[in-house]
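Check this.
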Amino acid sequence: QDGSDDIEDVSLFDADDDVSRRSKKSKIRHPVASFFHLFFRVSAIVVYLLCELLTSSFIACMVTIILLLSCDFWAVKNVTGRLMVGLRWWNQVDDDGRSHWVFEARKVPAQGGKTSSEAESRIFWLGLITCPMIWVIFAFSALFSFKVKWLAVVVMGVVLQGANLYGYIRCKVGSRKNLTSMATNYLGKQFLRQTMATEDQAAS
């Protein structure tokens, strides 16, 4: 592997699109996937907060948290993202040793309807965004309170959950160019809105 990354956007296999089209958008169609999407990551946070009360063994706490984080990384990357929001990402190495990042998104029906449940989508993105932010807070807390032994654990949480967050954001918005363009357009709209509001105030 020569370290160079090629970005390839492909469409996810559109199996069960007919079923998705017929089901209610507000209903949770994959309750087991929705449960485990939050279970592992929330359990890791709870164990981190309560481990010193539950046991005096740092090794046992560290192994438990890392196992929960690893299970969460695998489940979110390979299962819940595909089922709940129709997104999936991974890295593969071709015969030349070049690294390819592949980001998949389920095809949108021709009628323009949504293929994923709105309730599942909220659960997915809320868990995906909130938990990495909590681990970042834990990282700063461990750093400033000089809990060096916990720093490796919280860094593992930030890396594993941050990787899934980055991967799914790339799946959602497309290539790095699209991500930059999206941020630029948002800032441009905010600046234009603020300018118009200022002009209206000046005119009145």
Residues 13-24 have pLDDT under 50 and may be disordered. The radius of gyration is 21 Å. The chain has one domain: 31-106+119-196. The first helix runs from residue 17 to 22.
